[in-house]
C-alpha cells in the first residue's frame, strides 16, 4: 500500500512517499481501505514540524473508507461497511480527560495518509449514509468541532445570533449547523468574493474585517450582541469576539491561527458575564449524534477541492495560501 510520511525535522519538502504491507487485523481491530482524507490545521502543524512526531509518522487525522477485514471479537462492523475515523478514539463518552485525548491518528499514532489502515475498531464510526467518502472525511475533526460547539456545549435557541470567522472548514460547518438550528449568522472575511459566497450559504450579515478592524463592535451593532462566537483565530481576534457578545454570551475557543498567547479584554469580558469554553473536537458519542442529525438534515459538507495523495505537500501549500472556501480533501481512491 502507498502512504505518505513525515521525515524529521518536518517541513513540506520532507513529506515522502513510501510503501508498506497491509496488516491483518488482530482481535478488536479492523482493516479499512481508505478512500479519502481531509486537511486540518492540526495536520499542517504535524507536516511542518511544529507538532513533533516520530520520524516516519504517517500524518492525517481524518479518514473515510470501506472495511476490508475484521478481527476477532469485533461485532460493530462487517466487511463492506462504510466508516469514518474518530479524532479521539479513546474518548467514548462523557467529559474530556487526559487519557481520553491520547491516541490521535496522524500525531500520536500513524494516520490516514495511507491507502489501507489497520486500527482498533474504536477508531471508527459509521459514516453518514448520504455522503461520499470525500464528504465524510471532512467530518471527524472540523465537522465534529463545529457540532460540539453549537449543539453539545451551547444551548442555542432559534433566532439567536452566531458569529463565525473566515471560511475554513470549522467556520463553514458552524454556519451550516447554525442555519439548520434556526439561528442567524454574522460572518467575517477579508475577501469580498468569499463574503458573497457566505451570503449565498445563508449568512444574514457579513463583515469585511480588513475594512472594519473594529468588526466586533460592528457585529454587536448589527445583531444586538451575538450569543455565540466560534473563535478560530485566537489572540489576534478574541478582543473583537468579546466585543461582539451579548450579555451572557459564549466564546467557543476552537483555534489559535493567530498565535498561542495574547491579551483578553477582561473588564469587557466580565462586564458581559461572558463564558469562554475550550473545544477540542469531541467524543465518539458526539460523532454519532452529529451523524444522525446530518443524515436527517441531508447536510453536505463544502469541499473546496481534492488532491491526490502523492500531492499532499501541494495540498498543504494550497492550505497555506488561504484561498480555500471550506475543506481541502485528499483522494486515495
From TrEMBL:
Chain ranges of the Enoyl reductase (ER) domain: 10-330
SMART domains (alphabetical): PKS_ER
Pfam families: ADH_N (PF08240), ADH_zinc_N (PF00107)
InterPro entries: ADH-like_C, ADH-like_N, ER, GroES-like_sf, NAD(P)-bd_dom_sf, Zinc_ADH-like
Name the UniProt record assigns to this protein: NAD(P)-dependent alcohol dehydrogenase
UniProt organism field: Congregibacter brevis
Source species taxonomy: Bacteria, Pseudomonadati, Pseudomonadota, Gammaproteobacteria, Cellvibrionales
Amino acid at each position: 500500500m502507498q502512504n505518505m510520511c513525515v521525515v524529521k525535522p518536518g517541513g513540506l519538502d520532507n513529506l515522502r512517499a513510501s510503501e508498506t504491507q497491509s496488516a491483518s487485523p488482530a482481535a478488536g481491530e479492523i482493516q479499512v481501505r481508505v478512500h479519502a482524507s481531509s486537511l486540518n490545521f492540526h495536520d499542517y502543524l504535524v507536516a511542518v514540524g511544529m507538532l513533533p512526531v516520530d520520524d516516519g509518522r504517517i500524518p492525517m487525522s481524518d479518514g473515510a473508507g470501506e472495511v476490508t477485514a475484521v478481527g476477532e471479537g469485533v461485532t460493530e462492523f462487517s466487511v463492506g461497511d462504510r466508516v469514518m475515523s474518530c479524532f479521539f478514539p479513546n474518548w467514548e463518552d462523557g467529559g474530556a480527560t487526559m487519557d481520553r485525548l491520547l491516541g490521535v491518528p496522524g500525531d500520536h499514532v500513524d494516520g490516514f495518509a495511507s491507502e489501507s489502515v489497520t486500527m482498533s475498531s474504536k477508531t471508527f464510526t459509521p459514516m453518514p449514509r448520504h455522503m461520499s467518502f470525500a464528504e465524510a472525511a471532512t467530518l471527524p475533526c472540523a465537522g465534529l468541532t463545529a457540532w460540539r460547539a453549537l449543539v453539545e456545549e451551547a444551548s442555542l435557541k432559534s433566532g439567536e445570533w452566531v458569529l463565525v470567522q473566515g471560511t475554513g472548514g470549522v467556520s463553514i460547518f458552524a454556519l451550516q449547523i447554525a442555519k439548520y438550528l434556526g439561528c442567524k449568522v454574522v460572518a467575517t472575511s477579508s475577501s469580498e468574493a468569499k463574503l458573497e459566497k457566505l451570503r449565498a450559504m445563508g449568512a444574514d450579515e457579513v463583515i469585511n474585517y480588513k475594512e472594519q478592524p473594529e468588526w466586533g463592535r460592528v457585529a454587536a451593532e448589527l445583531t444586538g450582541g451575538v450569543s455565540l462566537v466560534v473563535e478560530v483565530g485566537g489572540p489576534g481576534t478574541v478582543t473583537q469576539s468579546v466585543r461582539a457578545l451579548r450579555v451572557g454570551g459564549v466564546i467557543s475557543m476552537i483555534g489559535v491561527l493567530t498565535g498561542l498567547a495574547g491579551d483578553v479584554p477582561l473588564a469587557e469580558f466580565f462586564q458581559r458575564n461572558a463564558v469562554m469554553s475550550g473545544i477540542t473536537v469531541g467524543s465518539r458519542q458526539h460523532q454519532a449524534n452529529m451523524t444522525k442529525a446530518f443524515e436527517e438534515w441531508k447536510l453536505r459538507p463544502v469541499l473546496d477541492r481534492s488532491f491526490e495523495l502523492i500531492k499532499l505537500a501541494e495540498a498543504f501549500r494550497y492550505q497555506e495560501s488561504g484561498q480555500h472556501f471550506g475543506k481541502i480533501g485528499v483522494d486515495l481512491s
